[in-house]
Design a protein that fits this description.
heterodimer; A: alpha/beta; Rossmann fold; 4 strands; about 50% helix; B: alpha/beta; Nitrilase/N-carbamoyl-D-aminoacid amidohydrolase; 6-stranded mixed β-sheet; 14 strands
């Protein structure tokens, strides 16, 4: 593995725990809420949050659909128990099914996106209910590849792991004592039975992280990537994935007509006054 | 002379002058109680760092009540502190003041405004145009603001101007998690140590902590002896109050042991820099 992808987990843990403490408390809140899928990303975030704010201030919600693998809920429960946070289950089947009764021909992508957005509304409703900020659980690999649903799983108030690759998520998860079965299982969006990320994407996270690190973090050129042994077609396809999903990483575009347009020439940090 | 310096590793609130002033006063009181002669605050301690369009809102003229309050506090202790300065002609600078005995002893305007990567200072701020050493009760000092120090010429000029103590006020963001220690911290530690060694100067480096929009400032404020040795270092990522006893004898001995600054040939440097400037046509 590329040296740059090997995280100093002790330091990383301190930074991310500090991030949650500081960014949550400065808005005058001390609680967070997040979706716990049974996968490794949300497991890592809930461990970080529990360490940052105390498990009593963390609410994890598992939101299965009827086609979700039952093992996912078991794993979510296992993770919540391991770090001692509040845990509840809010199934999304009734809401999602009520909608698709009107659109029975919808394909898997539409159904998957709807589920992700349904979960988002549950989390933001609980944000108001509990006076808790919603934590995001998208890692840098998925954010760069656009492998997430806009306004669904990509929606949050704060994301502690959005700047670390999946490879580093595995390393930090092991260092923080996340249950082994969650670390070792195949990553899956769990939209339908047997789905796995790596099968759907067509490459492994470890391999794409090696490329992304060199392409994004180190800014190697395409000839340099070829010299480092990456297949040209693979490099091109990843470059296009990043480019074509860039809209998901930006706010909606605003038509500029005034002298001060939000985010273009009206620029303030979100922590303005905090 | 021997003196005690405090590096106030604080966590300013973004855009909140009144709150930050309260924090700063609290640190000054603590430093007075600790019998310190000098307290150093980070870059933009009064305002926070990623100000963007807040710059004109948080800018202070040097005759403002807030600055007056700090000047008054300097009757008890010398103070080095960073803020956004607004001038009479409405330019805004990333500035640092050295206050002593109820007077502004020196004002430095950051010359090198980083505008790359996560930095965007030149968009919002005007750049300073000089590096000058100045005399204080505690000896001859030079003051730099963060990125200034990454330009060898800046600390070189101050040392050639007679500074024996370099103050660096910083808001350095944490990045680089793949090494034994934080990437930006290791880079800075090398820089301050090497600078001290090259110039036979002591360095007092004060860096802030806290987060702004997910960016962490890593702290690690440090007192480096003229031999490049780290004598006192603040906590990483946490608020701290670093009191360091600055010893004159060490400086004298180091300057006897490695008299590089004595031997530094200003004439050769000027001649060659002059030639380079001429060849570049400006």
């Amino acid at each position: 593995m590329m040296a740059g992808l090997i995280a100093n987990t002790e330091l990383l843990r301190k930074l991310l725990v500090g991030f949650v403490q500081d960014e949550v408390r400065k808005v005058g809140v001390n609680k967070v809420v997040l979706g716990l899928s049974g996968g490794i990303d949300s497991a890592l975030v809930v461990f970080i949050a529990a360490e940052a704010l105390g498990p009593e201030n963390v609410h994890a919600i598992c939101m299965p659909y009827k086609t979700s693998n039952p093992e996912s809920e078991e794993h979510a429960r296992l993770v919540a128990t391991a770090c001692g946070v509040n845990f509840s289950v809010v199934p999304i089947t009734p809401m999602v099914d009520a909608y698709f009764d009107m659109f029975p021909d919808a394909d898997n992508m539409r159904r998957g996106n709807k589920m992700a957005r349904e979960r988002m509304t549950v989390l933001f409703d609980h944000s108001a209910l509990l006076r808790a900020l919603v934590l995001g659980t998208s890692n840098k690999t998925e954010l760069l590849l656009g492998y997430g649903t806009l306004y669904g799983d990509m929606a949050s108030a704060l994301n502690p792991i959005g700047d670390i690759y999946k490879t580093q998520v595995w390393q930090l998860s092991a260092a923080m004592g996340i249950p082994a079965e969650v670390i070792e299982k195949q990553p899956s969006a769990d939209l339908w039975a047997g789905q796995t990320d790596e099968e759907e994407l067509g490459f492994s996270y470890r391999h794409v992280d090696e490329l992304l690190y060199r392409m994004v973090d180190q800014r190697l050129t395409k000839p340099e990537l070829a010299a480092a042994g990456f297949d040209g077609a693979f490099v091109e396809s990843i470059y296009l994935k990043i480019q074509n999903s860039h809209f998901k990483r930006r706010l909606p575009i605003i038509a500029k007509v005034s002298n001060r347009t939000i985010d273009r020439d009206f620029r303030y940090a979100r922590d303005w006054g905090k | 002379m021997n003196f005690t310096a405090v590096l106030a590793q604080i966590k300013p609130k973004l855009g909140c002058i009144a709150d930050n002033l309260k924090t700063i006063e609290g640190e000054i009181v603590k430093a007075l109680e600790a019998g310190a002669d000098l307290i150093v605050f980070p870059e933009l301690a009064l305002s926070g760092y990623f100000l963007k369009d807040l710059v004109p809102e948080v800018a202070l003229r040097i005759d403002s009540p807030e600055i007056f309050q700090l000047i008054e506090l300097s009757r008890g202790i010398s103070i080095a502190i960073g803020f956004v300065e607004e001038t009479e002609d409405y330019h805004f600078f990333n500035s640092a003041m050295y206050l002593e005995d109820g007077k502004i002893r020196h004002l430095h305007r950051k010359v090198y405004l980083p505008t790359y990567g996560l930095f965007d200072e030149q968009r919002y701020l005007a750049h300073g145009t000089s590096f000058r050493a100045f005399d204080t009760k505690l000896g001859r000092f030079g003051m730099l603001i963060c990125e200034d120090m990454w330009h060898l010429s800046a600390s070189y000029i101050l040392a050639m101007d007679g500074a024996m103590t370099l103050l660096c006020l910083s808001s350095s963001p944490a990045r680089g998690i793949d090494g034994d220690s934080l990437g930006s911290a290791s880079a800075w530690q090398k820089l301050v140590s090497t600078t001290a060694m090259f110039l036979n100067c002591r360095v007092l480096y004060c860096n802030r902590v806290g987060f702004e929009d997910g960016v962490n400032f890593w702290g690690g404020s440090e007192y480096i002896s003229p031999s490049g040795e780290s004598i006192a270092r603040g906590a990483l990522l946490e608020e701290d109050f670093v009191a360091a006893r600055v010893d004159e004898g060490t400086l004298r001995r180091e300057r006897i042991f490695s008299p590089m600054m004595r031997d530094e040939n200003l004439f050769v440097t000027m001649q060659e820099l002059g030639r380079i400037a001429q060849e570049r046509g400006r």
